[in-house]
């Protein structure tokens, strides 16, 4: 499956953005779909995931502010990010896995910059 992330940009603290991860080649609802992020000088970090069943999981740092969802008709996963903070600044990328946490397929990232 090929994945393409989009929707990043520059936003002020407290603002919102919605990221998209469009899949092609295979049906993404068959996979565990993840969002990860990597800030400059830091390790890649798990952000959120949606299982084939539709249940979701979040890192503690984004719980209550970010929402992951999936549109099967569009073969796309979204990450709605609200109440953004400067520490959310990172390159965000999506990944599809055959189990939770696996990154069998990874897409290129989209940059999110949150100004204070």
Oligomer: single chain
Distance between the termini: 37 Å
Q: Specify the number of helices.
A: 0
Query: Which stretches are poorly predicted, pLDDT < 50 over at least 5 residues?
Result: none
SSE run: EEEEEEEEEEE
Helicity level: under 10%
Secondary-structure-based class equals mainly beta
How many whole angstroms does the radius of gyration measure?
13 Å
Shape: globular
* Topology, number of strands: 11
Describe the main β-sheet briefly: 7 strands, mixed
Give a written overview of the molecule:
It is a single chain. By secondary structure, the chain is mostly beta strands. Helices cover 0% and strands 53% of the residues. The strands form two sheets. Strands 2, 4, 5, 6, 9, 10 and 11 form a seven-stranded mixed beta sheet that branches. A four-stranded antiparallel beta sheet has the order 1-3-8-7, with no helix packed on it. The chain is globular, with a radius of gyration of 13 Å. The chain starts with a strand and ends with a strand. The mean pLDDT is 97.
């Amino acid at each position: 499956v090929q994945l393409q992330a989009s929707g990043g940009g520059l936003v002020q603290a407290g603002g919102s953005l919605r990221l998209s991860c469009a899949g092609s080649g295979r049906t993404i609802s068959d996979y565990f779909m993840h969002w990860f992020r990597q800030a400059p000088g830091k390790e890649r970090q798990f952000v959120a995931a949606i299982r084939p069943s539709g249940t979701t999981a979040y890192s503690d740092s984004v719980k209550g502010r970010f929402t992951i969802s999936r549109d099967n008709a569009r073969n796309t996963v979204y990450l709605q990010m609200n109440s953004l903070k400067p520490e959310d600044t990172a390159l965000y990328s999506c990944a599809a896995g055959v189990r939770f946490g696996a990154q069998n397929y990874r897409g290129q990232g989209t940059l999110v910059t949150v100004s204070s």
